[in-house]
C-alpha cells in the first residue's frame, strides 16, 4: 500500500533565561526556514523521520544538527496530524525537554566551535515569539500548557535548576512557568510539605542574607517512562 | 521526498466488566488478524491512516468498523515508532478511551444488528490476554500504566461509571484499575476530602443496607484538551 503521508519530527526545547532587567523568562530555539513552504518564517528544530531511526532518535539528531543541544531525556509531547497542518500531508511527532541555561550555553558554544552550527538558529522568549511556520505556534502553546499542568504534580521545574538551589530559585522557575507571581511564604510552605525537597547544610551568600540550598529528593525517579523501553522514549 | 514509512492508528478501549464470580475486571476488545504479518494473532482494533482524515478520525473510523464502538472522547496515548516494531516500517498513533459496560453492550448489539459486524472481534480480560501481534502487548501495558497513574490525580475512573454511583462502585473501579484491594474507610475519607464528589439525596436499595448515591462535581471539565482543537484531539 502506498501512502502519500510523510512523518516528521519537531522538538520544543525550553530553558529559563535571565533577561537584561534581571527577570527569568522561558525561551526556546527556533530555526529560520530557508525553503518553501513557509520560507523565511521561523519553525521548531526538526526534520524528516528516516527509515533507519526511531522518532526520538530523529528528534535528537535534528536537534543536535541545528542547535548542538543534547538533552539527557526527550519526552514525547504529541503527534500532530490534522489534515491541513501543512500544504502536503505531514504527521509530526513532537518531543520536548527542559534544559538548564548553563547547559544551553556550554552546548551552544561547543557547536559554534565545531564550525558546523547553522547561522539560522536563534533563541526567543516565549512572550515575544515571531510569526511561526505550519502549526508550530499551536505546538508551542500546547507544550507550555503541558508544562504548566505538569508543574503542579511533578518535579518538572527541576529541569531548569542546578542540583542545589534556593527556594527563591525554585519559586522564580515556577513563576516563569505559570506566568504569575507566587507568595514566598505560601510557596515555602507548599514545597516543604510536598516532601520533594531536602535541605542541605549549605547556604548561598552574596548581597542578600544567606539562603539555604536545597536539593530534590531523588528517591523518586525524575523521568518515569513506565513500561516503555528506550527505543520509544529517550536517547540511547 | 519519498519515505518508506507508513502511518497506522490503533485504539485501546477499556471497560470494567463483571465476571461470573461477581468481580469487576478491566477488559478490552481485540481483533483476530486474517492476514500477514501476524496472521491468526490478536491485535488492537486499527488500520492505516488515509490521506483525507486526521489520526483521531482514523482511530474512530477503524474502531467503529470493527467493534461498532463510538466513544465520546478519544485521547492520544502515544505514537509508537521503534524501527523493528513491525516487519515493514510503521509508525502507529495510538488512542484510548474508557467505556461503561452498558454503553459497550448497547453499541455492540446495534453493530451486530446492522449485519456489518466482523466475526473476528472478541473481548478479553486484561489479566487473561492472548498472544498479541506487533508490539501490541507493550502498548496495552503502557495504556494500563497511564490509567493507573492518571487515577491518582484525575477523575478518570468516572469513565467506567454511570452518572450516579455508590462509593462501593467507585472503590471497585479503583481496585480493578490498581489491581489491589483498598480499605473502604480510608477510601471514603480520601474521596470525600478530594472535593470531586457530590452526595445526592438518593440511595441504592437492594439486598444490602441502602447506600448513598454520589455524582462527580462537574464544575471541572472531565476531558481538558488544553489549547488543542478538535482536529487533533477528539471525534467531531
Automatic annotation (TrEMBL), chains A, B:
The keyword Endoplasmic reticulum does not apply. The lineage of its organism: Bacteria, Bacillati, Actinomycetota, Actinomycetes, Micrococcales. InterPro entries: NUDIX_hydrolase-like_dom_sf (IPR015797), NUDIX_hydrolase_dom (IPR000086), WH-like_DNA-bd_sf (IPR036388), WH_DNA-bd_sf (IPR036390), WHD_NrtR (IPR054105). SUPFAM superfamilies: Nudix (SSF55811), Winged helix' DNA-binding domain (SSF46785). GO terms for molecular function: 8-oxo-7,8-dihydrodeoxyguanosine triphosphate pyrophosphatase activity. Its EC number is 3.6.1.55. This is 8-oxo-dGTP diphosphatase. It comes from the Bacteria. Residues 4-147 form the Nudix hydrolase domain. It is an enzyme of class 3 (hydrolase). Keywords: Hydrolase.
Amino acid at each position: 500500500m502506498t501512502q502519500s503521508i510523510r512523518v516528521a519530527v519537531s522538538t520544543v526545547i525550553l530553558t529559563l533565561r535571565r533577561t537584561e532587567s534581571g527577570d527569568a523568562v522561558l525561551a526556546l530555539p527556533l530555526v529560520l526556514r530557508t525553503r518553501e513552504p513557509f520560507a523565511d518564517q521561523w519553525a521548531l528544530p526538526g526534520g524528516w523521520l528516516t527509515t533507519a531511526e526511531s522518532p526520538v532518535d530523529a528528534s535528537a539528531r535534528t536537534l543536535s544538527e541545528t542547535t548542538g543541544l543534547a538533552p539527557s531525556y526527550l519526552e514525547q509531547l504529541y503527534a500532530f496530524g490534522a489534515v491541513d497542518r501543512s500544504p502536503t500531508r505531514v504527521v509530526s511527532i513532537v518531543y520536548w525537554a527542559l534544559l538548564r541555561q548553563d547547559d544551553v550555553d556550554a552546548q551552544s558554544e561547543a557547536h559554534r566551535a565545531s564550525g558546523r552550527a547553522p547561522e539560522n538558529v536563534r533563541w526567543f522568549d516565549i512572550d515575544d515569539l515571531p510569526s511561526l511556520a505550519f502549526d508550530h505556534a499551536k505546538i508551542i502553546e500546547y507544550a507550555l500548557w503541558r508544562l504548566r499542568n505538569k508543574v503542579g504534580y511533578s518535579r518538572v521545574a527541576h529541569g531548569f535548576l542546578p542540583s542545589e538551589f534556593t527556594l527563591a530559585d525554585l519559586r522564580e522557575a515556577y513563576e516563569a512557568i505559570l506566568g504569575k507571581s507566587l507568595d514566598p511564604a505560601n510557596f515555602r510552605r507548599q514545597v516543604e510539605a510536598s516532601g520533594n525537597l531536602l535541605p542541605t547544610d549549605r547556604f548561598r551568600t552574596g548581597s542578600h542574607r544567606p539562603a539555604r540550598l536545597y536539593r530534590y529528593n531523588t528517591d523518586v525517579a525524575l523521568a518515569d517512562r513506565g513500561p516503555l523501553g528506550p527505543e520509544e522514549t529517550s536517547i540511547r
